[in-house]
Write a structure and sequence with these properties.
Elements (H helix, E strand, L loop, with lengths): L2 H6 L2 H5 L15 H12 L12 H7 L1 H5 L10 H24 L7 H27 L4 H22 L7 H23 L1 H6 L9 H38 L7 E3 L3 E4 L4 E8 L2 E8 L5 E8 L5 H11 L9 E10 L3 E10 L5 E10 L4 E10 L6 H6 L2 E2 L1
Antiparallel strand pairs: 1-2, 2-10, 3-4, 4-5, 5-9, 6-7, 7-8, 8-9
Helix pairs in contact: 6-7, 7-8, 7-11, 8-9
Organism: Duncaniella freteri
Protein name: DUF2569 family protein
Keywords: Membrane, Transmembrane, Transmembrane helix
């Protein structure tokens, strides 16, 4: 029966004893009918069986909570304490100090800034690791492993780019020791009982900050390096433009803003552009000699670097032809270092391939010279090297 009809048929309403001057007809304004109406609502669908919460369901709700082992409140001691204090704490601060001491803004600000940026992220990771272990955070072990991996990766990268020159032996040994210690500490974090007790595996969870740290480690140094490359190219372009503007070339002289090239009489020189780089192509109609010359910037004055250039310019046809190395030498003075290699191809009319790199110490420039000529004629390569000038 609707609530309004119930009110109209109420005995209090008929006798004039109703205390509700303005009934709301919603089952809540009248104490007499409120309970009855609510009861009817509860039993509106009597055929439906209401679910009864059992004890087993309560246990299921807490199933995962029971499986998560809580961290131990024992004091951090032993090797874990040594790892956190010396490897993480002192190591991260020392890395930042070294990056500031070796910072050289005069060469290229952004290249040097990439080392400082990595050191800052390295230090931040170390601080987060120390705080996480102190507070028993769920990501403490993850941060510690991330710190070790950063140390391992930075030393391994430095080891690969090491030129192996005299005087770097101690640095190489230091990097190798660091790599070995990184492996030891990573194994320790994976297998230590103390680490398991303090931060149980079931308790460990990563946080948003962990992925922010990883993204920063990857992106920030690369951004600095990218800005450094762009800044260096812009600086080189401006310097070369000014050099060409103020340069006065003589007879048989050519320049790309980095070097001044002098060619012998009777040798033709063509200039072409390839990938924003000027390429000089020399040809001697009398002897048939052909020489290609291009300059760039490179401070890696090593035999290893020279061999990489040589393999890059080596023709694939030489792999199937018999040849002999006639000369493979290095000469240096206060201004330049010259790597020179002469290959003689054993065919019916022997052909010489001369390949040279001339490094200029002061400017960091390099000039590449590659020439083919008959072994019975004079090559212009020696003349070009001896008369080469760097701007």
């Amino acid at each position: 029966m609707p609530i309004k009809d119930q009110c109209a048929n109420c005995r209090f309403q008929d006798s004039g004893n109703c205390t509700k001057l303005v009934p709301s007809f919603d089952g809540t304004s009248c104490d007499v009918y409120a309970k009855r109406i609510n009861l009817e609502k509860e039993n509106e669908y009597p055929d439906l069986v209401q679910p009864i919460e059992t004890e087993s369901e309560n246990q299921d709700d807490n199933f995962y909570d029971d499986e998560i082992e809580q961290p131990s409140d024992e004091d951090i001691h032993g090797w874990l304490k040594f790892f956190l204090i010396f490897f993480v704490g002192i190591g991260s601060f020392a890395s930042l100090i070294i990056s500031f001491v070796t910072f050289e803004a005069a060469d290229n600000f952004w290249f040097s800034a990439s080392d400082v940026a990595f050191a800052l992220v390295y230090l931040a990771t170390g601080i987060f690791t120390l705080v996480a272990f102190y507070k028993r955070d769920t990501d403490a072990v993850f941060l510690a492993k991330t710190f070790v991996i950063l140390c391992f990766a930075s030393n391994l990268l430095a080891l690969f780019v090491s030129d192996g020159e005299v005087g770097s032996d101690k640095m190489v040994l230091r990097m190798i020791r660091s790599i070995i210690w990184c492996c030891i500490w990573f194994i320790f974090l994976c297998s230590s009982n103390q680490v398991q007790n303090i931060i149980p595996k079931s308790y460990r969870r990563t946080k948003t900050r962990d992925w922010i740290i990883i993204a920063t480690v990857v992106l920030l140094p690369f951004i600095c390096i990218g800005l450094g490359i762009a800044s260096e190219k812009k600086s080189h372009t401006e310097t070369e433009t000014v050099a060409l503007t103020n340069l006065s070339l003589g007879a048989n002289q050519f320049s790309d803003g980095r070097v001044v090239l002098s060619v012998p009489d009777g040798v033709d020189c063509d200039e072409t552009m390839a990938e924003n780089t000027k390429v000089f192509s020399l040809s001697d109609a009398e002897t048939g000699a052909e020489v290609t010359i291009v300059s760039d910037y490179d401070t890696d004055v090593t035999k290893k670097n020279f061999n990489q250039y040589w393999r890059g310019w080596k023709s694939d046809e030489l792999d199937n032809i018999d040849y002999a190395v006639v000369k493979d030498e290095k000469k240096s003075n206060d201004d330049v270092t010259v790597f020179y290699k002469l290959i003689r191809v054993n065919v019916e009319n022997p052909v010489d391939w001369e390949f040279a790199l001339v490094f200029h110490h002061a400017s960091g420039k390099v000039c590449l010279i590659s020439g083919y000529s008959s072994s019975e004629t004079n090559s212009p390569v020696a003349y070009i090297i001896n008369n080469l000038k760097f701007l």
